[in-house]
Amino acid sequence: MRYADVAVDITAKALDRTFQYLIPEHLEKEVEEGVIIQAPFGNGNRTITGYVMSISETPRVDPDKIKPIIAVVTRLSDEEKRLTALAVWIRDRYGSSLASALRTVLPARKKTAVRQKRIVCLALDRNRAEQEAEEMKRLHQQARLRLMEALLQEERLPYEVCTGKLHVTGTVIRTMVQKGYIRIERTRQYRNPVPDQAFAHQEVQLNEQQRAAADRILSGIRQRPDCRFLIQGVTGSGKTEVYIEVIGQIVAQGKQAIVLIPEIALTYQTLMRFYHRFGGRVSVIHSRMSAGEKQDQFDRARQGDLDVMIGPRSALFTPFPNLGIIVIDEEHEESYQSEQSPRYHARETAYRRGALEGACVVLGSATPSLEASFAARSGEIGLIRLDRRAGLSALPATRIIDLRSEVPSSDGMILSGALQAEMKDTLQKGEQVMLFLNRRGYSGSVICSSCGHSLRCPHCDVSLTLHRGGNLVCHYCGHTERMPSACPECGSQYLRTFRFGTEQVETQVRQSFPSARVLRLDRDTVTGKDAELKILSAFAGHEADILIGTQMIVKGHDFPDVTLMGILMADLSLNVPNYSANERTFQLLTQAAGRAGRSDRPGRVLIQTYKPEHFAIRCAAAQDYDAFYEREMRFRQDAGYPPAGSLTAVHMSCADKDHLTLAGNYVRQFLEKVIGDAPVSLLGPADETVARIADVWRQVLYMKGSSGALLRYARGWLEKYIEINEGFSNIEITYETSWAGEKAEAAARPGE
Ligand code: ADP
Ligand code: ZN
Ligand code: ZN
């Protein structure tokens, strides 16, 4: 007897283990590792699907109780089998359920409508067809005649042309098929996101630095296909051209490439550069595509119709037959960290996939994550620097404006005197201005200046944001209420907004520069599918003078006429309660500053802040990554934060607050016992930054230590403890680990 260990495609945490099924004789040949099967499940024996993880000859329970597999649904392709191995790794590393890890790497093959193109073809030779047409004329069969005559002129016609222009009904077509006059051919038609047009092949001559970078990666690959590199290149240094060059060589060897780009930076300009080089063999996926559209792209990849896939985090799981390289552009971006279970990180997961499939991983950024930099500086991955801009432009000149020395105004300081003067100057020269604000909405939180009460969402425990028209909106759950006229706590009339959003900036700019043409880009103005693109291309075409926006305007866009970038309220992100707040601030400011002066005219950047002496702001102003890294790394070392130490976050959530608190305390007590005298410290449990989302309470407990292995050991015991304790059944627990260095065992290549 042979038995299959089956991972059941069910979310329930309690069922997250494999179940053994008997392989019936008639399926003996078909059931193998990696196939999807149907089997009876539970007391009611309902039919469920599952993945065969392994096959064995020993029953784990009473053989009489082992149910047989019903049927084999699909066979996984070789690509998908490798992805299954990746899912197992994701489960082990990030502590998700196997089912959700599998769903992440092998998106459910929903039965989405497969679009077929139908062609009506003449099934007779011309003589017979002409005879039949005569007969139809005699019998006054007008519709049949129309179709026959059309087919005599053009032997293959799209189905829609027959039913549309020729007014032939489906019934008539079916009858003619039955009579053997015509036949219908079907071809599968993929929804292709790449516009079907000829692309001019644009050659960019790589400069010396770029050439050297590409050569180093290519020779690295020749020595070891799964090598890893970090390109630390200032904004505008031409990293994308280096990727394109390397990918071109890899594709020439018959391998494929995945290029990860943060969704927010997935710009038209970047895509066009890839299309120009690789034409229709490039595809893209993004979050606005339907499941069917995404699946089409994965199918095309599996069938060898594509060489390059571009997309955000999930593109990492493109099932290519012979993957050669994974590029992660803007590697430091937070969007590479999944927020849902499994909380995988694209960088680590790319390392793993590269190791499993013998593919090279190239990271690129102007402001690499501390993790990637640490790995590069300790020699675990190759470090390549591009320190000059590729085009003509020099890096912009940057000035810090101390808002504390400005006269305070009622609406908060939006545009300082210095910024207004620079804007005026820029507009007079006919050049463009960008204003970057790290917020959205008309204004920020509403606070009572009598009692200090702030208006918060009743479900999520975050500040509500005041929108134009007087509505207060929760940006987590969407809860909306009218702005009260008096403070609900003390009844005073002094409810005030202390922060501001892009709408308020727009109002202020229009007042100060009434003749300037102004555009605004944030999540509120981008509603339709192409709204973002429209605004950006209008601005790129110089149809406006000033662009105001949030993060969406600072990533990856190239606007040659922009010579002034104003950064409003630079220190907002410093106040986020997270150990990486400095890093986030530095990255954001550096990226924003990099937008100015991308052509031959020199750019200027003004950074408005209440904390002009902060090193993250000073280093960003100086575009000095290395200085920032040194300083920030010292802080991480002193405090034991990643990448100097390892940190595991145990995220717990539950609708019952008291139950959550109790469970959190049990977790802590249990971990204290497991850890004993080992060098691991426990922080919390405490409320998450957002303590409640959609009525579910959230707490987090951190384990911090120099050894990742110790943390994993502790987590392993915790998982077992939780599994056998009924009390945890209604608590959702996920783990997120940042490891000391990249050489954590899990990211290591097999055999290392
Ligand atoms: P990064 O990705 O490093 O920010 P890009 O690859 O977007 O830089 O390049 C910045 C700009 O420089 C783009 O407009 C690009 O077309 C141009 N560029 C890149 N490489 C070259 C080159 N070798 N010669 C001329 N222009 C280049
Ligand atoms: Zn009050
Ligand atoms: Zn809410």
Secondary-structure map with pairings?
Layout (H helix, E strand, L loop, with lengths): L2 E6 L9 E5 L13 E6 L4 E11 L14 E4 L3 H17 L3 H8 L10 E7 L3 H13 L3 H12 L2 E3 H5 L6 H9 L3 E7 L19 H16 L4 E6 L5 H14 L3 E5 L7 H11 L3 E3 L6 H12 L5 E4 L11 E7 L16 H12 L2 E6 L4 H8 L4 E5 L10 E6 L14 H12 L3 E5 L9 E3 L16 E3 L3 E3 L6 E3 L12 E3 L4 H11 L5 E4 L9 H10 L5 E4 L12 E6 L13 H13 L10 E6 L5 H7 L3 H15 L6 E9 L2 H19 L4 E14 L2 E10 L2 H17 L7 E7 L14
Helix pairs in contact: 1-2, 1-11, 3-4, 7-8, 16-17, 17-18, 19-20
The site of one zinc ion has 8 residues, from loops.
Overview of this protein structure:
The protein has 752 residues and is of the alpha/beta class. A seven-stranded parallel sheet has the order 11-12-10-13-14-9-15, sandwiched between helices. A six-stranded parallel sheet has the order 16-26-25-17-24-23, with helices on both faces. The protein has a five-stranded antiparallel sheet with strand order 2-1-4-3-5, with no helix packed on it. The protein is globular. Mean pLDDT is 83; it is low at 744-752. The structure holds adenosine-5'-diphosphate and zinc ion (2 copies). Residues 204-207, 210, 233, 235-241, 390-391, 558 line the site of adenosine-5'-diphosphate (ADP).
